[in-house]
Amino acid sequence: MLNIKAVRANPDFYRRGMEKRGLPSRVIDEVLELDARKRSMMKEIQDLRHVRNTVAEKVAAAKKRGEKADELLAQMAEVNRKIEENERKLREIDEKLLGLLVKLPNPPHDSVPDGDSEEDNAVVREWGEPRKEDWMKDHVDILESLGLADLETAASVAGARFYYLFEDLVLLNWALALYGLEFLRKKGFKLVQPPYMLTRKIMEGVVSFQDFEDMLYKVEGEDLYLIGTAEHPLAGLHAGKILDGRILPLRYAGVSPCFRKEAGAHGKDTKGIFRVHQFEKVEQFSFTKPSQSWDEHEFLISNAEEIYRNLGLPYRVVNICVGELGPVAAKKYDLEVWMPAQRKYRELVSCSNCTDYQAVGLEIRYREAPHVEETEFVHTLNSTALATERTIVAILENYQRRDGSVEIPAVLQPYLHGISVLKPAGR
RNA sequence: GCCGGGGUGGCGGAGCGGACAACGCGCAGGCCUUGAGAGCCUGUGGCCCUUCUGGGCCGCGUGGGUUCAAAUCCCACCCCCGGCGCCA
């Protein structure tokens, strides 16, 4: 959610941000007005509580002397009534204010392109030679001829967008995860196996309101949601803590299954394993000082690029336009890999700087050094390192040969115990 | 899931209806020292108001309740430890 102190300190920055998002800048003035009312009400309540405390002390003193304190008690009743009334008013104001702060989006970075569709995304970099031979098949056909997956049975036991993988594809999937973890470990990231379910309180700090409906699975009868990505539990790792600024940036590499409803994606990528309800992913997550986060954003996307170069998959990096940018991120790069059969670049990596938006909701702060008085919210960033099932799709399509076999990228072979080629069933 | 014990600052640990949440460790600053250490002094949860100096409120797992007054009493929930049960 929005950082109220920052809004107060720099309202024009937030007015501009809302306008870039297509919202009227007056929403910020509503926020400021509610904030002012809230604080003056708090002051009033605090003053009344001060009266209560001093009168209570007098009552104690009187009782100790064995005197009656009827007048004091009557005064106390009146003060308490007034406090209760004001507390009710404060709750009302606070709910309105919080409702706005949670609903309003993170102001986008100046470099975020305007526009509201995919065509408005700005291509930042391209790498590799896209293959465009006419004979190339899509991953669904390749999976079928390899005989290493069963999508039909998965649909009958679990529904659409599920899959069974078999044999070499199982190994390939874990090889990708292991390769991603090893890559990040060498870069100094701390490896994390996180919880796969989180409470509502944590989820509220991490995702937008809309995600609860469109993305997250709720566990029936429990205050728990299945994670949509390791980003969610990693963000919660330091919830409620004040970090020592000297240890920032803090970098984590999480690996986990990811569960997504994909509501609102009807008709898109209905076949195959590109868009599914459940997949594995290695995720980068950083906690930084505000002054570090834009460099960190470039660092995270550069790691993802290095991974896809090492895998030999042609890609481009795009700067996502404001209309496609979720409310939580201030800027987002996607890394899109070339898919020969579709003749399109498709998203495999998403790399976001959420600035202080998640940190405010989760109350993750830092101070420059121990015993420095001021605290400030950290910035959080997340980026895919390697989404394994989507990467399998990319490998199948880009590494396919005329005879129907599929070569395995060299960097994965140390994890595959001698498997270097996938061959069509019965050959 | 059941029975018992417990959740207090970064950590250990007192207070168990009314006076500053004692004391210790750790950490930071200062004095001392050629330097380090020891020793001594000071500080070390959050928020609000006002300013640069103070004042106030909140805070003892979370949320309610009782009371003039709750860390302290009552209720519900969460978590931790031990035992029993179940279990990959």
Report on this model:
A hairpin with a 4-residue loop joins strand 11 and strand 12 (344-353). Helix content is 41%, strand content 19%. It contains 13 helices and 17 strands. The longest helix is centred in the first third of the chain and has 39 residues, at 26-64. It has 2 domains: 4-103, Helix Hairpins, CATH 1.10.287.40; 118-422, Bira Bifunctional Protein, Domain 2 (BirA Bifunctional Protein, domain 2), CATH 3.30.930. An 8-stranded mixed β-sheet has the order 1-10-11-12-15-9-8-4. The protein has a 3-stranded mixed β-sheet with strand order 7-13-14, with no helix packed on it. The protein is α+β, with helices and mostly antiparallel strands and 427 residues long. The protein binds one RNA strand of 88 nucleotides through helix 3 and helix 4.
Helix content, binned percent: 40-55%
Structural class: alpha+beta
Shape: elongated
| Broad CATH class of the largest domain | Alpha Beta
- Poorly predicted ranges: none
Largest sheet, if any?
8 strands, mixed
Number of DSSP-assigned strands: 17
Topology:
Blueprint: H1 4-9, H2 11-20, H3 26-64, H4 70-103, E1 122-127, H5 139-146, E2 149-150, H6 151-157, E3 164-165, H7 167-186, E4 190-192, E5 197-198, H8 200-206, H9 209-214, E6 225-226, H10 231-235, E7 242-244, E8 250-259, E9 278-288, H11 293-310, E10 315-319, E11 331-339, E12 344-353, H12 357-362, E13 365-367, E14 376-377, E15 379-387, H13 388-398, E16 406-407, E17 421-422
Parallel strand pairs: 4-8, 7-13
Antiparallel strand pairs: 1-10, 2-3, 5-6, 8-9, 9-15, 10-11, 11-12, 12-15, 13-14, 16-17
Helix pairs in contact: 2-3, 3-4, 7-13
The structure holds one RNA strand of 88 nucleotides.
